[in-house]
Amino acid sequence: MIPQKLTIQGLYSYQSKQTIDFTRLVESQLFGIFGTVGSGKSTILEAIAFAIYGQTERLNQQDSRNYNMMNLKSDRLLIDFECINGRSEHWRFVVEGKRNSKQFDKVNTFSRRAFRKDVDGKWEAVEEPNPDEIIGLSYDNFRRTIIIPQGKFQEFLQLGPTDRTRMLKEIFSLNRFEFSAQTAALISKEKGLAENLRGQLKPHESLDETAIAGQEALVTELQAAVRAAAEDLETLRKEQARMEAIAEKARERDALKVRLNELEAQRAETEARAEQLKSYERCVRVFELPVNTAEDLRQELKKKTEKLEGLQRDSQRLEGKLREVETELAEVRPEYEQRDARQQRADELGRILNIKEIETGLQQKSAALKKKQDEAVGLASKAEQEEQALTGVKAKLSALEENEPDRGRLADIKNWFDQRASLESALNNERKEAQKSQEQLRDKDASFQRGKDKVKAQLGLDLGEAGTPEAVLEQLRSHETALKAARTEAEHRRHELAVRVKLEDFAGELEDGKACPLCGALHHPAPLHGESADQLAKIEAELSAQDRRLAEIGKFVEGFLDLSGKLENSAANYQEKLRRVQAAEEKLRAHADIFVWPDFDSADRSTLDAAVKAADAHDREIKGLRKTRDAAEKKLREMQDQVKAVEEEVRTLQGRVTQDEADMRAAIKELKQLQWPDFGLVPSSEIEQERDKLTALIEKIAQRFTKLEENRQRFAKELDVLSGKLNEVETDLKAKTEDSERAEETLRKLVLEKGYPKLQAVQDILAQKLDTEKVREAIEAFRNTFSTVQSNLEKLETELKGQDFDAAAFDALKEHVRAKEEALNKQREDLGAAQRELERLRDNLIEKHNLEARLKISEERLGNLDTLRKLFSKSGFVEYISTVYLRQLCEAANRRFYKLTRQQLRLELAGDNKFEVRDFLNEGRLRSVKTLSGGQTFQASLCLALALAESVQSRNKSRQNFFFLDEGFGSLDRESLQTVFETLKSLRQESRVVGIISHVEELQQEIDVFLKITNDAEQGSSVKGSWEVT
Question: Which residues lie within the region annotated Disordered (predicted)?
Fold first, then answer.
């Protein structure tokens, strides 16, 4: 959270409105808020916290908070705070309140509003904002990590291990590390995965390296065949390319011959053009300049002659116009000289029209004045009646406002009931969860009993005394051990009986006189007789029954092992649910203890609902009266504005009447030729008609005379200019005629001198207008092309000498190459198929190895998951993580604490999560943090607070970290104070904004950017920036 702007008015010692713009403070990263004790420094932090959360440590609702927070000289309280949260959202929190005008110690409930700036930069109201979600911290943790009030630094250091762990769980959401249920799900999922892998391995059981080796040999054989075929094909392609090159050169030679013949046909014409170019260039060198000079003189002489003739015609025309203008001007002059007398009469006729117009307007304005005076009297009477009605409405409204219900108190009570309902709902949910967990535990117990009954039914074992799966497993394993011992004995007996049965078979085959196969005797007086075969069959049947019984015992052992884990998890889960139920019940009891409104019944919400309903009705009545008052005030203002407007119109009309009367008298005095009484009854239209005729006649004569005079002067001037031009052109024409004759004579002599028959021949040559460069380039290009074609032809004939192109052999070669390419493609296809088969076998073998490896990993993972199941049991891992977080905070704090104590002290965490201090001045021995001095305790608390703030703001991904330090620093010596200051300044490099509130002079001298707070006995607290302090 980065503060942007704070406005305070009427809060504690702040009487008048004070606005703090944090922009410059935040930009400096390290700034101070300085002032004497009691000046109002800490109020700035309290205003920020109260604006956001609506809570304050100093007062609660039972302390008449609203009254005590408001300045005793103020009737209004305002807190307007703007900030940017960790998500770069721009928020504004506004708190307003006012004092009851009739009852000084009654301050109505403060109104609270929140706004968020939208993409267009406009403030958008937010209903029921959640400050914990907006800022990312609860109120308590906000005071522990962002704005730390006086004396609160030691709180985190001195909390007990249980409370400190609970705080860390809340701040860092450590309950997200409760993975017991997830682990059980992963174990079930992993077992399914292992069975799936075993199923996928079955199709690859016969695959081994031998099959791959055989396929590799086939691929090697096919690769050798492809290489041999490719080499043969390459040889044939080279021969094909050689023959194609010969054929190409032959075609090029034939084309060059054709081109050379074409050029030979154009050669004579090109040489003729070269001679023509030579003759043209020689003629241009000699005659182009003289011919052009003579021609230019002829054209210029022609132009001069034409110009002279034109000037002579213009001179004759102007002389005629001038005579006409002078004749007409003599006719108009007498009329023009009478214009002044006519103009005076026209002017006085206009004044008489103006007098008549003033007279008419005066009559109309007098009538309007009488009407407006009557209207003003009526409006004033109505406004007085409306004002009396408004006074009654205001009196009724004031009485209602004096008895306005305490909305803040009702809101607190409503909040208490809402919280109780929420707590009751949470308790019911926890009880349901506990009941569900108990039912699950009972189901597991029932499964346990059914398992015991099944053991008794199938194995005949009575497990009545075994109350746990572990006891059952112990008896099953004991029985299994005894059964295995009995089977070993039976196996031994089976072996002895099998030998005896074999001997009995030999004895049955003995005959006197025949040798015994074992001892060789011929006489057999007492051969072996018995029933060993029957006994052997019984023993083998007994062994089969024992094997079946051992298999059944193995299945039961596996089932009870699984049931043991489930029972343990269910029992732990049930205990955790019971603990949550107890915690919810405790919260509900604690909530009931804070009900402090004796005029309401905590067991009956209807009294609150009735009070709220009455308050709503009261508010609606006030709202209606305010609406009526506002409408009446508006109507009264409108009526008063109408009265003022009408009175202003009366004054305006009165002034206009007086002015018109004065204007009329002044206009009559100005008449000289005419008399006003002579025209009093004459219609204005006749007077206006006479005046307009005179004006038109005067203007017409003046315009005609002026135009004629202007034309006369213009024609005379133009005639003078034209006469000068005529003289100039005549002189120039004579000189140009002489120059032209000399140039013609010089050109005729030059033509005869250069051997041309006459001038026309030279002019014909020059008329060709050849582009000499282009013609010369074309001739040169032709000659170069001819030479190049001839040279290339000779070169190709030399290269092809002795080389003939056989088209039939070339076609046969191409067919041979095509056949070879097809055969090679077929071999490559066979090779590709063999390689793909080899790749498939290799992939299958790799897949087999991968599946085997994955199966091994899955089996190892099952073992690890079982370890995790034990680790996460009973929230052990969450406790461990909280210890890790605490150790990280301790290490982060030591980076500053170790330096602040000049490498003498370090914070360490004991086994029970209590803080201890390692003292390097005493052989690094550990001692309790309670043995630290006051200054050392402050240093340790400061470092832990900074570390905690860094961790929280890093978790919230704030662009810029903000930390407000409200501490006097009076317990530190100068050197420690300097060390603290250097530490705070170093935080700038960590993009952290640090604000320090203190009265210590040394800090004020070290910090350049600060706010200075002063408290005047009359004016209250005021704020000035360091840039404003002179």
Answer: 428-451
